[in-house]
UniProtKB/TrEMBL annotation:
Cellular component terms per the entry's GO annotation: plasma membrane
Domain of life of the organism encoding this protein: Bacteria
Protein name according to UniProt: Carbohydrate ABC transporter permease
Keyword terms of this UniProt record: Cell membrane, Membrane, Transmembrane, Transmembrane helix, Transport
Family, as annotated: Belongs to the binding-protein-dependent transport system permease family.
PROSITE patterns with a match to the protein in the record: ABC_TM1 (PS50928)
PANTHER family for this protein: ABC TRANSPORTER PERMEASE PROTEIN MG189-RELATED-RELATED, SN-GLYCEROL-3-PHOSPHATE TRANSPORT SYSTEM PERMEASE PROTEIN UGPE
Regions that span the bilayer: 12-36, 75-99, 111-133, 139-160, 191-212, 245-266
Lineage: Bacteria, Bacillati, Bacillota, Bacilli, Bacillales
Species of origin: Fredinandcohnia quinoae
ABC transmembrane type-1 domain span: 76-266
GO BP: transmembrane transport
Keyword Ribonucleoprotein assigned: no
Localization per record: Cell membrane
Length: 280
């Protein structure tokens, strides 16, 4: 009887957990579903009572309005170039810094690491004006490099890489490589990089999506419509007197598709990183 009760109790617990996770997943996905619904309907449906929850037939028509109003594909390309370069640079800087902080000893290491982490608590809005003047003085105003440079140093990325390298790369392996005559960079390239690929995927997804969705800095720096990223271009669709929500949300919907593709492409490595972290 005790065993049956135990099994029954476990099954009830699992049902409760799965039910909770299912409801939480549906709630988190609902904004995306609602965005899709509004992208398929006229602007009047945005404020309809009761709310509309079924798709319409205007997805293509609304998207045509977006293409007529802005250079959508050009803005998408600018965002893709921006996010790709930033992601690659952040991965390289963060992994090298994480490797150094995890496996090397040098004066002021802990103080420097703490200083880098403290930059995470500073609101980005506080540095907006001085950063703007620095970019303007450097001649990078209204350029993609001017937008990129602010994202290259990523404290979260350095922290994640340091933790992953500390737990995943044995000190004995590095010492053996040094005895074989490997330089520090060769150890990083041949030993560390293959081991931290799951962390690369995780950090890459985080950085790519964060930069793709960032708006304030891009809106501050970019002025020429030819240099607009997709976020700035979509913001230009808004009109104070006449806002076509169907058109705007259609553009937002199609601008979200690349993020979904990126996540699905790196999904296996992303899950692998989470699983390895939980096992460790």
């Amino acid at each position: 009887m005790g065993k049956q009760t135990s099994k029954k109790g476990i099954s009830i617990g699992k049902v409760f957990i799965y039910s909770f996770l299912s409801i939480a997943s549906l709630l988190s996905l609902f904004p995306f579903y609602w965005m899709f619904i509004m992208a398929t309907r006229p602007s009047s449906s945005y404020s309809a009572i009761p709310p509309v929850i079924t798709p319409g037939k205007l997805l293509v028509d609304n998207f045509k309005k977006v293409l007529d109003a802005i250079d959508f594909w050009g803005a998408m390309w600018n965002s893709f170039v921006l996010c790709s370069i930033v992601t690659i640079v952040v991965l390289m800087i963060s992994s090298l810094a994480g490797f150094a902080f995890a496996k090397f000893k040098f004066p002021g290491k802990n103080a420097l690491f703490v200083a880098i982490l403290l930059t995470m608590v500073i609101p980005p809005q506080l540095g907006l004006i001085p950063q703007y003047f620095l970019i303007a003085k450097s001649g990078f105003l209204d350029t993609l490099p001017g937008v990129m440079i602010l994202f290259f140093l990523n404290p979260l990325g350095i922290f994640l890489m340091r933790q992953y390298v500390s737990e995943s790369v044995p000190d004995e392996l590095i010492e053996a490589a040094k005895l074989d005559g490997c330089s520090n960079f060769k150890i990083y390239r041949s030993i560390v990089l293959p081991i931290i690929l799951p962390a690369f995927a995780t950090l890459g997804i985080i950085v790519f999506t964060a930069v793709w969705g960032e708006f304030l800095w891009q809106f501050t720096i970019l002025r020429d419509p030819e240099n607009y990223t997709i976020q700035v271009a979509l913001a230009s669709l808004s009109n104070t007197y006449n806002v076509d929500f169907g058109m705007i949300l259609s553009g937002v919907f199609w601008a979200t598709v690349p993020l979904i593709i990126i996540f699905l492409f790196f999904n296996r490595l992303f899950i692998s990183s989470i699983t390895e972290g939980s096992v460790k």
